[in-house]
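Notebook B, p. 112. Complex prediction, attempt 2.
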Amino acid sequence: MLPIVEHPAAAKEFVTNPDRSRWHDRALWFVRSKRDLQASSLPEWEYLRQTASQIKTHTIANLAHYLEQFEQNAIAAGAKVYWAEDAAEHNEIVLQILREHRTSRIVKSKSMLTEECGLNHHLEANGIDVVDTDLGERIVQLRKETPSHIVLPAIHIKKEEVGETFHEHLGTEAGASDPKYLTEAARGHLRDKFLAGQIGITGVNFAIAETGGIVVCTNEGNADLGTSIPKVHIACMGIEKLVPRQRDLGVFTRLLARSATGQPITSYTSHFIGPKDDQSELHIILVDNGRTKLRSSPTFRAAMHCIRCGACMNTCPVYRRSGGHSYRATVPGPIGSVLSPTRDPNSYKSLPYACSLCGSCSDVCPVKIPLHHQLLAWRGELVGKKLLPMGKRVAMTLASHLFRHPRLFTTAGAIGRLSLRVMPRWMTHNRFNKWSIARDMPKPPQESFRNWHRRHRGN
Amino acid sequence: MIQQTPSRRAILDRIKTQPVEGPALPDVDPNIVIAFDDPVAKFQEMLIAVGGQSHVVSSYEAVGKTLQTFDEFASAKHLVSLVPEAVAGTVSTESVRDPLAYATVDWTIAKGEFMVAENGAIWVDGKTLPHRVLLFIAQYLAIVVKKSEIVSNMHQAYERVDGFGGPFGIFVSGPSKTADIEQSLVLGAHGCRKLQVFIVDDK
Ligand code: SF4
């Protein structure tokens, strides 16, 4: 069982370092602004979002049909297709393929699914050397950390810190922090790994039922180097990645990079149908790991639309200031706060509260997931499941009692106004009142709203 | 052959026993999406924005002449040319099957099928490549494409690649790049350091 994540506690280190928190906030706002520029450059932006959402809703509704169609076509093209119920089975399948090829050197390109499944751990525990080849992921891997963002894995790390990490692991000059110099060092280091890699593992951005093909999008070209050199390509995908037809990609490739990093398209958008040649192999693993459960929920089903662009994180005021690691989940931010409690409501019950309900995430989401509505709905579910923290539960019960008894409410209001005026600071600012940790108490009004209303509007 | 494993059956069963109503599959209305009066100009503008460079030339011979003006080309030793009418290569691809044999390639000159104006992407069909690694392993990449082969947007692009039966096809937009270190854009991550696109005027 995972430890229960209290988002406020996990975020404390980050938010109490104002310089870092502000720097992080600005870095992500910069990405969000680039996204806005791209979105406004297309007059049909809202039409695209609408269409994307409809394609996804259609696909998820007819998922069994499209999965079977995909499998059939992928096999016809020469790929091997596997189905995995959960993370453990997925990891076992990958390990099995590696064992059959007696391989120990893997080049992996960024895949949130393999992060979700904890693949690296599993392989390393079995004596296999896994090299993450996306620059941000490699930085995080060398530092023995996890990604803090699904598109920008190292967004929380400063260039000086990358310099230290590279000095230690790649022998770059001490104190170097120039991104160009550091990237060049990583290029040389990873090229050796690519040339030595025996099997390439990638994620999948889109899978096409009609052709049995898969699409992988990267800017660095690491997925391509990592799959064109080795003879074996293992592609790991969640079952929600399907689209029915190849032409549906017209909609999604237009939305993905624009929403993610504010680019018009990723540098490389690669389409694979079957293995390279008759000497090569393509293995595709279809993973459920909770997705069919999500599908069975009318309230949260739309979360399956997610194309992992990260736009909701970049815009989220809570994420930007608290950092991705505070969510203690593979997918952080608004979508992570919807997905994680589906998997384990008890461990992740504080995440739906890591949200100001500002609605910005729902506005930017390219596939129109009503994220803030879902977060609100989660709060309702958690109350129903009696999974609210003790403090909140007691307070809510008292408040509800108060609201249901008008006389009591009036009296409480009067006491409240009086006490706010006369109470000394130590009585409100102490460790029992979490609300006042970083705030002053409000100035109480002279009279109650009820009185004011009676005087001005009443007759 | 489809392998009927317990997991496959369980996943499909869970989906099938949970029927969900959904809308019909929508098609994109071609009249709603963006188009450009001068798609070539838009393509050039977008290519610069994504870090590449383009050159409109009057003939295939002019491609080689322009390339010679780049220092990194003039000093290059290992060239793979898949457009021999434009440039002669120095590395033969015949009977080479091992991708590692291309590890020292300085330049690959590849053939592009068509350009996409809205994002500066070029479609390269894997069938035109003796080995697909050539697009990614070369330090520098040039793609030669005909001026008349252009579409405005990705919907039209996918119409063009509709019959594409694999095994590999790719939209290339700009050189390989990264911004993983403090959001500073650096060109040349793992793939090519620069991308030169030659637009051959065939009208
Ligand atoms: S929920 Fe929407 S905005 Fe957030 S990552 Fe997924 S697709 Fe992008």
